[in-house]
Amino acid sequence: MTAPHPGAAGAPGAGPAAPPVDLTVRLGPLTLANPVMTASGTYGKGLEFRPFYEVGRLGAIVVKTITSEPRAGNAPRRLVETAGGLLNSIGLENPGIDEYVRTYLPLLRTLRAPVVINIAGHSPDDFAALAARLDPEPGIAALELNMSCPNVAHGMDFSTNPEAAKDVVTRVRAKTGLPLIAKLSPNVTDVRPIAKAAVAAGANAVSVINTLLGIAIDWRRRMPVLGRGVGGLSGPAIKPVALRIVRDVSRAIDAPVIGIGGIQDADDAMEFLVAGASAIQVGTANYYLPTACVDILDGLPSRFAALGATKMGDVVGTLRDPLQTA
Ligand SMILES: Cc1cc2nc3c(=O)[nH]c(=O)nc-3n(C[C@H](O)[C@H](O)[C@H](O)COP(=O)(O)O)c2cc1C
Fold first, then answer.
1. Angle 292-306/266-275 helices, nearest 10 degrees?
2. What residue's CA is closest to ligand 1, atom 22?
3. CATH of segment(s) 25-73+90-216+233-325
């Protein structure tokens, strides 16, 4: 995996301590103390990171996707490192909603950070049933709809065309007043019409991107490395693609965008904010830099100061057009 940027939080050259900035973020009805969130599937139950830092400092914790029924996940091998990236084929392994509500949710309530529950259904009605089940539970800040998992059969069906996206969000919206984040797939020609459909149907925010479909090959065996053949690519290798999609989607919809993809330090986070993200999620970096999230949070004030920015609105979506500034 690539090394963090020089000048990342705490590194020599990061500059003197900056004045406090207001990092408060509004994602529709959801207000977060800061824009740093964890990405689903890469942060365990949050508890695993307690030895490293106070996880309650984060803007929000997004947990691994939960489904109606327990899932064992895909056959091994399920992870392979690639150049600057990680290819995974976990396949939504999780204990199912009943066990989740019984044993996991009480643990998550002890985290002291807003908790976003990520759900995936096998049909629009299944999504709606999950939302209905979680709606009365206390301590849930928002639902993130995983409409874009590349590692299960039909997992991306709900974010590869606008009608399907609209159907899922409409049915979920009918079952809950919780803030809704639609997590969309990059594995389409254009994410914008799908994002527009999700927002029109009641999503309060859109998160992009989920992983990019990829394949790793062991040529000697003439076999794919992963047990399922294909997997989802994450990590620094996907950052430029994610930045492009965040820029395009944030300009196309009238709702906040949460940027995800290869973020490992505060400079990466700033790139996403400037591109148009109102908040960011950190995924793969949690595996190799366990303090990545809190380092990013601590690194933001000095980066804001470098732009003369004191609040999120001074930074978010301020990307210039090279054709006009050249
Ligand atoms: C091992 C692994 C498991 C993941 N599991 C989920 C999941 O259960 N639900 C989901 O919405 N996204 C899942 N993702 C996707 C991440 O949340 C994120 O969208 C993606 O990894 C891109 O961000 P990153 O480059 O910072 O990792 C997973 C990613 C990885 C690497």
1. 60
2. 261
3. 3.20.20.70
- Angle (nearest 5°) at CA 67 between 260 and 61: 40
**In the numeric block, which tokens belong to residue 75?**
């056959």
CB-CB contact of 132 with 173 (8 Å): no
Q: How many angstroms is it from 251 CA to the middle of ligand 1? A: 24
* 181: amino acid identity, one letter: I
Domain ranges for the chain, please list them.
25-73+90-216+233-325
Q: Smallest Cα–Cα separation from 299: which of 257, 259, 261, 271?
A: 271
Residues of the chain with pLDDT under 70: 1-19, 325-326
Taking the C-alpha atoms of residue 219 and residue 229, their distance in angstroms, rounded to an integer, is 13
C-alpha 168 to ligand 1 mean position (Å): 20
* Secondary structure class of 187 (helix, strand, coil): coil
**Whose CA is closest to 201, among 140, 124, 148, 142?**
124
Instruction: Single out the residue of 71, 208, 206 nearest to residue 151, CA to CA.
Output: 71
User: Could you give the 3-state DSSP secondary structure of residue 255?
Assistant: coil
Is this model's pTM higher than 0.85 or not? yes
Residue among 175, 172, 166, 168 at smallest CA distance from 198: 166
What is the pLDDT, as a whole number, of residue 17? 60
Q: What is the pLDDT of residue 3?
A: 47
Q: Which residues are catalytic?
A: 149
pLDDT per position as a tens digit, 95-127: 999 999 999 999 999 999 999 999 999 999 999
CA 205–ligand 1 middle distance (angstroms): 18
pLDDT given at position 8: 44
Q: Is the CB of 284 under 6 A from ligand 1?
A: yes
